[in-house]
Amino acid sequence: MAQESDSTQTRPKIGLVLSGGGAKGFAHIGVINVLEEIGITPDIITGTSMGSIIGGLYAVGYSGEELTEINQTANWGQLLNDNVSLNKVAMQEKRETRKYIVEFPFKEKKVDLPIGLIEGHNLEGRFSELFWPLSEEQNFDSLPIPFHCMAVDVVSGKVIEHRSGDLVTAIRSSMAIPTVFAPVKMDSMLLVDGGVARNFPVQEALDMGADIIIGVYVGFQENVAAEDLESMTAVLSRAVALSGIVDAREQFDKVDVLIIPKLGKYTSSDFVKGPEIEKLGEVAAREMYGELKSLADSLHLSLHPPTKIDQPHKILITGVEVKNLRNIDDDYIISKSGIEKGDSLSYADIKEAIEYMHGSPDLRKLTYSLERDEENEGYILVFNVTENPRAMVKYAARYDDDLGVGLISNITLRNVIVPSSRFLFTLNISENPELRMDLNKLVGKKQHFYDHFYYNGYRYELPLYNTGDQLGHYKINNLEFGYGIHYTPGLNHQVGVDGFYKRNSIKPQPDLQNIYDQAGFGKHRTRDWGYAVFYNVNTTDDLYFPKRGINFKILFTHAFSSKSVLENKLHGDDFDYFVKERQDPFASLLIDHNWYKSFGAVTYNFGISSGLNTDDPGVTGNFVLGGDSYRYRNNYRNFAGFNMAEIYTPNFVLAKSTLNIEVFKDIYLSGTVNVGNIGDSIEDLYNVIIDNAFPEYIWGYNAGIRYDSFIGPIQLLMAGNNQDSKTRFQISVGYPF
User: Fold this and answer.
1) 3-state SS assignment for residue 108
2) Predicted confidence (pLDDT) per residue in 649-695, tens digit
């Protein structure tokens, strides 16, 4: 119930008006703390954007002290983006997470721009937790302190005053800064930040019955010079808010006590500086202390904080509904949530279900709201869904000193080719081109199974090494396609079987021709038919800079039909000989295990890897070791201390130990030491391990800087090994193919 007392029936009502201003709105908390100290509890609150967040929290009963705690503990870096921890992403989607610099929806046969950079999934989740369990039918005048907030409908151009409904949605729409946050769809309206037209809602507080207005303004500067607007973003943000700036000037005249904190050096994006900004709000309020104290004394006020809304640990769910679906069935969403009618759930239970469901490849955004079910004394749980666009075009640029410069382009189609499907076409346009096509078709009621069709290929030109020296170059071509059935019992587990056809060739380039001519070898081609069985567990929290979790994979491959062609051309266009033979079937086993653990700013990674072949897999079936990249191919493995593809071997075993120390945000000092052995056969590998002393094993290391940048991982490494005296420098920039 809204606060009621005999005194508030007779004395003038105080309205507290909190403007928008992004991170500068943390100053509102400092002002509220001073008001509480003086004994002023507002009878009415209105707010816009950040003012709606602070005002809404205070209106439902959070004290100034609690607001300060929220400010100090909030992880705004996480809240203000849509990044989801990798362990909350479906297994078949993990490799596509954080892989492209720009992504555009493809609509009506043309590439379009996204409606906003941030959907606000994480932010709305935090709001839902703080306002638990307010329902969609909430009358904002019935809150402990009556509260209204402002938004603007960009369809009609009208200012929207939220008086009732879902408080989380109202506040989210009030802070939907155009081009930054995606607008909020409500009925036929498309709502954006109220600061566009009504950033300082004084008149609304008066209309609610306020007699005395205390206003806190942290919006745009009134007086700016042309030289203050020399960037595109500065001009754009000023232009978007210009109407709200002009309106705020008119609202100032209606305020009895106007508090404008001096926030000169702080900007609307300084969320990590919230405690500092809050302190400046307190300073500004104390400068008005005398006036505020006189007001409190004249009205005989003493602090009477409102009773906080009832927040039970668990609520009864009497029904489950899904809104805004277009291409997915309600039953799929509801069954995936695991929530049923009659369940008693806490916020944590719903959050866990949301995180699991949001990992689905079909969902771009997933939030929830509650509808009060008075008849059954419970709540109807409503999932609000935003599906991924049916077609997306994505791009990323990449450079590394192994494969050169590349432009990675991708087309993703969801539920276009067939229902419940995802098709990927990814191309690396480069001097070393790569191609990947995947079609996943989900099957079953809960869609844990999916059909997997794929076609992959690449053509690399790589150097051949001898004790660290380049002898020349060879060209390797690979093509593979197949079909399999995969099963994902959870977000982080996957098992499957694939049937495949592989075609490989390796050919020395002119700078190697003399060496290979003497060896009687010009070109080697293989063709293999077979199948592969795998099991993969990945509980890590990030694809490139994991801080915790494990990544384990075991892959068994059986090539039951294998053909080999050996060509040698010594003179002119005539082959000296052409040998075509059937190669013995062979099987290989590949095991990888990586464990990650963080201790403050330090992340430790221990990994072991082994590849074994039962028989000779042919030149193109060997494992390829060397380098330290994020590249993903089954027969390529990192081996710090060596260049990419410096080591070819049918069998290997290695262990590594890596330390990443975060010295600045997203910048790491990194070092890796690994040790291993290789062998032409499993028996040879075993003998090397047993017979050689530990220092005689193959050792390698690298050290340098890694940077988790917005264009992808950047690493500058120096590397070396105990097999030669050469130092290697390795550079890579951007997301891998």
Assistant:
1) coil
2) 999 999 999 999 999 989 999 999 999 999 999 999 999 999 999 99
pLDDT tier for residue 474 given thresholds of 50, 70 and 90? confident
Q: What angle do CA 702, 706, 711 make, to 5 degrees?
A: 140
Query: What letter represents residue 173's amino acid?
Result: S
- pLDDT band for 76, please (50, 70, 90 cuts): confident
Bridge-based pairing of strands 257-259 and 212-216 is parallel
∠ CA(612), CA(618), CA(621), 5° rounding?
55
For every residue of 376-392, DSSP letters joined together read TTEEEEEEEEEEPPSEE
Cβ(368)–Cβ(384) below 8 Å: yes
In this prediction, what percent of the chain has a pLDDT beyond 70? 90
Give the angle subtended at the CA of 687 by the CAs of 682 and 691, to the nearest 5°: 160
pLDDT at 131: 93
* Torsional sign, CA 542, 335, 361, 710: negative
**Is the per-residue pLDDT at 578 higher than 50?**
no
The pair of three-digit structure tokens given for residue 420, joined into one six-digit string: 């419940």
Q: How many residues does the chain have?
A: 737
Token pair for 671: 């070092």
Name the residue among 450, 464, 537 with its Cα closest to residue 94: 537
Could you give the CA distance from residue 523 to residue 507 in angstroms, rounded to a whole number? 5
Among left, alpha and beta (phi > 0; psi -120 to 50; other), residue 172 is alpha
State the pLDDT at residue 215.
96
What distance lies between CA 437 and its chain's CA centroid? 23
- The CA distance from 57 to 29, in Å, is 11
Q: Are 653 and 675 in contact (CB under 8 A)?
A: no
Ramachandran category for residue 572: left, alpha or beta (phi over 0 → left; psi -120 to 50 → alpha): left
pLDDT at 168 over 50: yes
Instruction: List, in sequence order, every residue forming a beta bridge with 102; answer none if it has no partner.
Output: 395
Instruction: Spell out a b/e string for 100-131, using b for 16 or more CB atoms within 10 Å of the CB, else e.
Output: bbeebbbeeeeeeebebebbbbbbbbbbbebb
**E strand segments, 188-283:** 189-193, 212-216, 257-259
Report the DSSP beta bridge partners of residue 89.
Answer: none
pTM of the predicted model as reported, rounded to 2 decimal places: 0.80
Q: Residue 221 class from Cβ within 10 Å (0-12 exposed, 13-18 middle, 19+ buried)?
A: exposed
User: How high is the pLDDT of residue 398?
Assistant: 94
**Which one, of 208, 189, 260, 282, lies nearest residue 21 by Cα?**
260
Q: SS3 of 668, please? A: strand
Chain centre to alpha carbon of residue 419: 26
**C-alpha to C-alpha distance for 622 and 380, rounded to whole angstroms:** 58
H or E stretch including 535? strand 523-538
Distance (Å, rounded) from C-alpha 343 to C-alpha 316? 6
Categorize the per-residue pLDDT at 6 as very low, low, confident or very high, splitting at 50, 70 and 90: very low
Residue 385 scores a pLDDT above 90: no
The 636-637 sheet, strands edge to edge: 636-637, 623-625, 647-649
CA dihedral for 467, 468, 469, 471, sign (positive or negative):
positive
Q: Taking residues 253-279, what's their average pLDDT?
A: 92
| Strand duo 184-186 + 636-637: pairing | unpaired
Q: Amino acid letter at 273?
A: K
Buried/exposed code over 381-392 (b: 16+ C-beta within 10 A; e: otherwise): bbbbbbbbbbbb
**What average pLDDT does the structure give for the chain?**
87
